[in-house]
Specification:
With 248 residues, the chain is α/β, with parallel strands linked by helices. It has one domain: P-loop containing nucleotide triphosphate hydrolases (Rossmann fold, 3-Layer(aba) Sandwich). It is 48% helix and 13% strand. It has ten helices and five strands; from the N terminus they run H-E-H-E-H-H-E-H-H-E-H-H-H-E-H. It has helices at residues 19-43, 60-68, 86-89, 95-98, 120-123, 129-149, 163-175, 186-191, 194-207, 221-238, and strands spanning 47-54, 76-80, 107-111, 152-160, 213-217. The chain starts with 18 loop residues before the first helix and ends in a 10-residue tail after the last helix.
């Protein structure tokens, strides 16, 4: 796989992409996803793990709302992985992750994920390079286990926004009363470490690519949601799902 260099990848939609037409197509995809997710749940043979990574304000929460709330909530779970609790920190770094992997028939969304343990920990010097590489090997083994042992299909998305757009969105949280609840004074401090985050993200893309990463241009939320929904639709259709017959 060609090495991913984030600064060489545009964060905006390609020229000529019409916003209104794209949003109409997205609406049709979401209708199809509702049916496909119901078949996934009813058939109970496959599971789907959606890994969503991105910098602060890249739109992880919005993506989850815009794409996945069109489905039956009984078949979709969301887990967010923030700073480990005392109990979690007393175990291996994948302990808290494995508990949230999807059962067959389910879609599980990771809003941030096991990759935090080789990203934020490295940026802040909590994990050295040797330990990080060992963890990345463990992550590859972990993802391989899920796909082989539980018929789990994994989609990994990095929401790619520009540093300029991130700062604009963080500033908006200071001004918009409906977004003030999202404000965290630490976000601006983390933003100053942008280049270091990009360096370690690129290493993750390089070392943990057995299941390939998809870099999603995310400066425009409508385009971001469209790309993710389209890939989800493609994956579910590839499973050739069927409703099971009547139980005897």
């Amino acid at each position: 796989m060609k090495k991913i260099i984030l600064k060489n990848i545009d964060t905006n939609p390609p020229e000529g992409i019409d916003k209104d037409d794209t949003k109409k197509e997205l609406a049709e995809i979401l209708k199809d996803l509702d049916k496909l997710q119901t078949m996934l749940y009813a058939e109970g043979k496959h599971s789907l793990l959606i890994v969503i990574q991105g910098m602060d304000a890249s739109g992880k929460d919005g993506l989850t709302r815009d794409v996945f709330t069109s489905m039956n909530p009984q078949g979709v779970n969301v887990a967010s992985f923030k700073e480990p609790t005392k109990e979690e920190d007393a175990h291996d770094f994948l302990w808290r992750i494995h508990k949230s992997t999807p059962a067959r028939g389910m879609i599980q969304i990771f809003n941030r994920s096991h990759y935090e343990s080789v990203l934020v920990t490295r940026v802040h010097g909590q994990t050295d390079d040797v330990s990080a590489k060992q963890r990345m090997k463990a992550i590859n083994d972990f993802e391989r286990l899920l796909t082989m042992d539980n018929n789990t299909h994994i989609l990994k998305f990095y929401l790619h926004i520009s540093h300029k757009e991130q700062l604009s969105r963080l500033e908006e949280r200071l001004q918009d009363p409906e977004k003030m609840w999202k404000y965290n004074e630490n976000d601006f401090r983390e933003s100053k470490l942008w280049d270091l985050y990009m360096k370690y993200y690129e290493e993750v893309f390089d070392k943990c690519d057995e299941i390939p990463w998809q870099i999603i241009p995310s400066d425009k939320n409508w385009y971001k949601s469209y790309l993710v929904a389209k890939e989800l639709q493609k994956t579910l259709k590839s499973l050739h799902l069927k409703f099971p017959g009547m139980k005897k």
